[in-house]
Amino acid sequence: SQIVQDGITLPVVFMSQLATDETLVWALRNRDRVFLIYDVCDDYLSDTRVLAGVVGQDRADEILNCVDLVIVPSADMKRRIERRFPNLPVRVIPDGIDYDLGSRLQQTAAEQAPFESDLVLWFGNPGRGNFESALPMFDEVLRDERQRLRLVTKASYVRHNHAAYFDHVEPWNREAFVSRIASAKGHARQPCR
């Protein structure tokens, strides 16, 4: 992709939280020749964990200090970033699991479009609220006798925190992920996180 900025066409480069030191050095070195977008899919501004050898919030600050635009999944995340970086443009691109979930679940069964497959698949990292944000969807699927729920995720997390769903878990690994995506025939639901 490219963007025209001040009459100059620049290539668009996306950066993520796991950007390496080398990537940051490259980004700073090429600052005037690229348009940098930081895709923030989690609250790294308050993340004190060490990710890829760097404290999460430290890496987020480094990236936020060198990009042209930030994209986030929620208005709340947008407000948090704008408070700390008031001159940095931030745009919301909602992810599927967070976008208007409450009103979708309040629709009657007649209003809801039928699933094209009987397998509803959720996969990903269960931490930092990801699994919890999908609980209403899981419950909705489990109430529908025509649907089967499969959760490809960290089994120990579900066993410890949400044992009622454990029978639907398949431990996360590449083979399980690929196999279940194929069996869902492309009708999988996945959070951004």
Q: How far is it from the N-terminal to the C-terminal residue, by CA?
A: 23 Å
Number of strand elements: 10
- Widest beta sheet: strand line-up: 1-2-3-6-7
Biggest sheet details = 5 strands, mixed
Q: Estimate the global geometry from the Cα principal axes.
A: elongated
| Unreliable residue stretches | 98-116, 185-193
Query: What is the ordering of alpha helices and beta strands?
Result: EEHEEEHEHEHEHEHEH
Q: Report the helical percentage.
A: 25-40%
Structural class: alpha/beta
What is the mean predicted local confidence, pLDDT? 75
Q: How many distinct helices?
A: 7
Radius of gyration: 19 Å
- Strand proportion, as a percent range, falls in 15-25%
Kindly describe this structure.
The chain is built from seven helices and ten strands. Helix 3 links the parallel strand 6 and strand 7. The C terminus is likely disordered. The strands form three sheets. Strands 1-2-3-6-7 form a five-stranded mixed beta sheet, covered by helices on one side. It has 193 residues and is an alpha/beta fold.
